[in-house]
Design brief:
Blueprint: E1 7-11, E2 14-20, E3 36-42, H1 44-54, E4 59-62, E5 64-66, H2 69-80, E6 89-91, E7 97-103, E8 109-114, H3 128-133, E9 136-142, H4 151-162, E10 166-171, H5 179-183, E11 192-193, H6 197-204, H7 209-217, E12 223-227, E13 233-237, E14 242-245, H8 258-271, H9 276-290, H10 303-312
Parallel strand pairs: 1-4, 1-9, 2-7, 5-6, 9-10, 10-11, 11-12
Antiparallel strand pairs: 2-3, 7-8, 12-13, 13-14
Helix pairs in contact: 1-8, 6-7, 8-9, 9-10
Length: 323
Amino acid sequence: MFKNGPIVCIGVMVADLIGGPLERIPDAGGLVLVNKMGLFPGGGAINTAVALAELELEVEIIGKIGNDPLGGFLMDNLDRRAVGTQFVQKDREANTSATMVMVDPDGDRRFVHYIGANAGFTIEDIDFEMVNAASVVLVAGAMVMPGLDGKPLADLLREASRSGAITCLDTAWDESDRWLQILEPALPYVDYFLPSLVEVQAMTGCVGPNEAAVELLKYGMRTVVVKLADEGCMLSMTAGESFHVPAYEVDVVDATGAGDCFNAGLIAGIYMGWSLEDSAHLANAMGALCVTEYGAAGGLRSLSEIKAFMATTPQSIPALGLT
């Protein structure tokens, strides 16, 4: 058991303009119609914090937005969902980060991203009294926060770990392919590392999730949780134990934010004192519900509703070679 304090989500805050289903990419000067388009709060820190708040858990967010209408839109959504926002900073020069998300008919997505105020988010923007009070600290969006990546990320997670918090780390895709060069100093202070399969493959050159996780454990984190989309997740621990938890079968509408909702489920289960395996089932359930609606928050449910979903929804038989 760990200390009694809020869950603190630190990282990227983004406004997502999501449209789909996109049948084809338009030619230059052309036009393609979609059936649905909307503006949604997004980014790893926001998506995870909102999902945790939906479970009626105490959660604070630390990040940076622009002093613009998109920043106001994000703050209004967070306030309405009872996420603590007193530690969100406003950048006086850059606009709020934004992403155009084009959703394919199968629910997969294509992204055009403006990093915006997230580029100016640094360790000086973080309230360490809040970090020291936290029971769980999640950093979401490593690799797209250049002011925090590298040594500052290691310093932040070291302090969170020293204060007794459970530490979690999630990444965004790294176009520069510097993965472990950036992450290595921070990994010894990570209790739960939360990458996707394609991310661990890029980091390690290993194909199988368990093989990749074993390689990553050499860098000092305690547990690697590899998100496998419709195959569920694979968890590997330093003690040598590993196990797979299958996914729940749902029809995919939009996969935006599914990994962040998964993170929220895992953190919530750990926070509530559930076993790691039960927490992984909760994570898979929240990720599955997320993809049934547009936007990361569209599929959010109360804990009682999620439990009912888990009790009545079949889980997939894994086809992936989990080695």
